[in-house]
Amino acid sequence: MDERRFRESDLVRWIRGESPANDTVLVGIGDDAALVRNPSASTLITTDMLIEGVHFDLASASPREVGWKAMARNVSDIAAMGGRSTVAVAAAALPRGFAERDGQAIVRGLLDCADAFGVRLVGGDLAATPGPLVLTVTLLGDTGGRPPVLRSGARVGDALLVTGTLGGSLLGRHLRFTPRQAEGLLLAERYAPHAMIDISDGLARDLHHILEESRVGARLQADHLPISDDARRAAAASGRSALDHALGDGEDYELLFTLDPPVAARLLAEQPLDVPLTQIGIITASGTTLVLPDGTERPLDPTGWEHTA
Amino acid sequence: MDERRFRESDLVRWIRGESPANDTVLVGIGDDAALVRNPSASTLITTDMLIEGVHFDLASASPREVGWKAMARNVSDIAAMGGRSTVAVAAAALPRGFAERDGQAIVRGLLDCADAFGVRLVGGDLAATPGPLVLTVTLLGDTGGRPPVLRSGARVGDALLVTGTLGGSLLGRHLRFTPRQAEGLLLAERYAPHAMIDISDGLARDLHHILEESRVGARLQADHLPISDDARRAAAASGRSALDHALGDGEDYELLFTLDPPVAARLLAEQPLDVPLTQIGIITASGTTLVLPDGTERPLDPTGWEHTA
To answer: Which among A10, A98, B3, B82 is least surrounded, fewest beta carbons within 10 Å?
Structure first.
């Protein structure tokens, strides 16, 4: 049984049993489309595709981890808008000959993450592919009637903050990260961030997205960056600095956001989240500057800093 | 320029220019998620993945046709629920070295279809793949507050009808078909179909989906089936009968639905659609029977009939 190759109808039947309809899900898996109740007057929507050999490798990632990651990346995107994830659909291209248990493990990973964050999986598509495994998750979310937190809202003088620690995610954390949904919701509800993004491409690059959309600049303090232990381990292996890993590595899935300075001071004093909150700089009128520990200043380009120093 | 390989940032910028925000789209392409206004209290959602070498071949399908098909398959699914498509997101895995103009042509095809059916493309994801082209479209839809038309609603005694003509779609129609959105909406608004599905897997197989979900049977009249000219051309090439092509070929994207017999009589008399409407059988308590032109009866299995005859 476990060694069977996946059959679309069997796997869909299994998924359907794992994902029953409820009050939110008016029509679930098994029809031409699902029908879901809208929590409020508008809906967040995001989609993300994971490709074997590009975003993960089945030699180092288990199918269950791949499923988790595919769902969690989307939860992180909804969180970065100040939203709560609600409903997902998933489409999978499984390599020909893929084992049924591995197909189920991917779905189990999707559902692990869905369950952890209150998401219902309501539909999908499944096919065999001659190529690598591809997994697309589309996620709906809700802001509870609040305006979404955009990339474009940063204002000159804002404090720039980040959740958690940065760098070295590829040592393993990128497969098992916890998207900052509770944190994004709490920030949106109580601290009115002006701009927010999740760090998927790397701090320097995602900061650049905020600056570009907001038409502002930033000044970062290198010695304020919350450098992760993983960044230090990665630095020991790569020969680059831990600072560079924290600035340039992708897939941290932490939240980067800006606040009015008095609100930032209150937030930093309250530290209401389970993860640390750190102010790493301020928003300026233009340019992107990194202030090194010795006080010298360098321009920071979106890919990091060392090769521009 | 045309020969450039695609760059994610360039293509996203181009798409963004082609898909501005409007009254429905509160936040469009360019943030972590889009935000869209809900037309009513519930939302239809469906997702579909197209894979090069499985669902199309770039030797015979243009990139623009592939884009059209990816969007149109989803519009067809929403139509089969009696819904109107509203908002889409798309994720594309483009083969490494894929030309920028081909990437744009795929998006142009997506937008051709979106524009034709009133859909807004509000977000997406784009990556290079070492494998075949994969395109996932997720579509939201709206029933205008009406209950959706499910696969599970067929009742014993219902008339079984189909839009358009059937069979031979692979001769080319499968790339350029018109999803029956207007037809599905008009049926749902004025004729209250009990059950409906779009014919993507083939008449016999999609009928089987209705019968299985509704726990009923059906009796089809072979000489009532609206056999397409393409089915006759396919039959001339394959040596199988045109009837078999009409029963077994997939990708017709016509609507198959059931109605109260008096309503069916009124519908057939009024013929309110731009495509022909044909009654092909009735719903029975159990079993699936095909009545041949000479009056003999055969069981009809989901894959067609000739190999079971």
So the answer is: B3
For A257, the 3-state DSSP assignment is strand
Choose from B15, B19, B32 for mutation: most chain A CBs within 10 A. Answer: B32
Residue contact B33–A45, C-beta within 8 A? yes
Q: What is the ipTM of this complex?
A: 0.94
Please indicate whether, in this complex, the C-beta atoms of B49 and A151 are within 8 angstroms of each other. no
Minimum CA–CA partner of B32 in chain A: A77
The predicted-structure confidence for A132-152, as pLDDT tens digits, reads as follows 999 999 999 999 999 999 999
- At residue A229, does pLDDT exceed 60? yes
- Tens-digit pLDDT profile for residues B145-178: 999 999 999 999 999 999 999 999 989 889 999 9
Q: In chain B, what are the domains? A: 8-142 (3.30.1330.10), 151-308 (3.90.650.10)
**Residues of chain B found within 8 Å of residue A83, distances taken between Cβ atoms:** 33
Does B37 sit within 8 Å of A134, measured CB to CB? no
Flag whether pLDDT at A6 surpasses 80: no
* Residues of chain B contacting residue A47, judged by C-beta atoms under 8 Å apart: 89-91, 123-125, 136, 138
